[in-house]
# Entry
Amino acid sequence: MGRGLALLRQGACTEAIESFVEARKIAPDDPRIDYFLGETYRISGEHARAVACFEQAQARGIDAPELLLRRGLAHSALGDDGAAERCYRAALAQRPAYPEVLANLANVLERRGLRDEAIRVYERALAQDPSFLPALTNVGLLYFKAGRWEEAASSLEQAAHGNPADGVVAEKLAIALGEAGRIDEAIARYEAILHSDENNVVAKLNVGNLLFNVGRPAAALVHFAALADRFPNSAVFELHRGIALYALVRPTAAELSLRRARELAPDCTATRKIGLDRVLGRISFYAGVNRLLSGDLAAGWQGYEHRWAAKEPRPREIDALQAPAWDGKHAPERRVLIFREQGLGDEIMFASIFDDVIARSGQCVIQCSHRLGRIFARSFPRAEICPAQETHDEWVRLSRRVSRDDRYVFAGSLPNLLRRSHAAFPRRRAYLSPDPHGTESWRARLAELGDGLRVGFSWQGGTLTNGSRYRSIPLDDLLPLFTSDGIVPISVQYTECTAELARVESEHGVTIHHWPEAMRDFDQTIDLVAALDLVISVQTTVVHAAGALGVDTLALLPRSETSWKWFGHGDECAWYPSVTLMHQRERGDWQPVIERATRKLRARVAAVRDRR
# Structure
């Protein structure tokens, strides 16, 4: 046995196995030989034999945590995570503070889809050994997947220090720092990556994307233009120059750049690495939204159909469906299922087309966010409403309901079928129905605040990486609106703002009434908005909700790529006739927009007074 151990330490596994087999002949009842033979088989990749030896060692009296760990590893290698988990938990029952076992148990939990539990187990491992590199790396990647950016950055920073050569950790750390708002640190990390690998296309793209996502498209354009000029045959860099031009609302230049990217794509090395179909799909998507920005709906919606290439891929369960997609035609004998996608505001916007689907189908099933379940049920009583969380299990459950005779459509595909021109938009004032009792209750509550126009305000929208910096307006800049005579200002801001409102009241003597509980419960939000006389809001879900309810609304909009939803820079809103669009003329300059909204508000107050 001693010779076998020496050979094993030298890495001579074949010879070690031979020695242990000979030792077993001499001492057939010695469980240590079974244990070491099992470990040698495991290291050699013969996991089934390893399990058999470990089981025999256990049967002969060795049941130590070290054996249970190694047996668990062998089970995992054979794909039997259930047996592996039992081994790890048995080991922890004997030795709760065993970081390596905890880390491997967390690996099993992660593979089973139990991400939150896996994170907790990794955290237990790190509580025992804060420098345990495998746990630091894996928990950092799980924090990353969960969008817990600060925690991801902290763990991955330590993991990168422990293993500077790990390219995946370096890339994810840079992304996490950017998502956490630590922009300069993120750029420094990308520069370090490029210093060691100057041809790292992903890092080059991510620097520009970071600038783009934090609301610095001009800087992103400079970055991508320099890359595109340096690598004139790169479709990928030309594509991103086009995206930056589109974000800066330069549609003609963006179209030229995207067209050039399409020409370069088939022969581009980077395109082949990413995938030609994916790159062409992204080009088509951005060419489409760029056309929508110019008011060309037919070409724009056709390009928008490629959104899956530009964003997260659509759920895999949909690709496995036996039913064909709905083509927009009358199908009175068919059941049509509408699948949800994107954010709450987009769901509300696309819901404006649901009545058309209901009228064209024999039965309509609408999947929606659980937050929209009750209002959709009231608003579309002829359809079956399926409120859902955006989870794998929900997609599996819904996809199992689809038969070969059914048809399906994603909500974002409805405009390409049914809204390909401005004339296709109905001029109805509202299509969502609030709870009448809830709305009356809010009207009574608002009446207690005194006379005046009940005006709802929302001034902050988006997140750091989807436009918050350029979509939001500092609260103090809206004082001309809040202090207008003849109004009762109401907050319909859904982010935490209690301290901010208290400061404004203290410094300026302006009371903006706010009910946080109403903004946490979307049904109450809907009822409150429906009880208002007017809404003045930056681009948030509140604009979509108010428009769908038919509440008069002044939408304060940035000069940005999000303008595609409004088809350019006119005042009228095709989706919501009750909404007036007020666009920035220059990016970042809110003053003219606020002045115009103030004039509109004062005119509305004067008109109400005149009617009295």
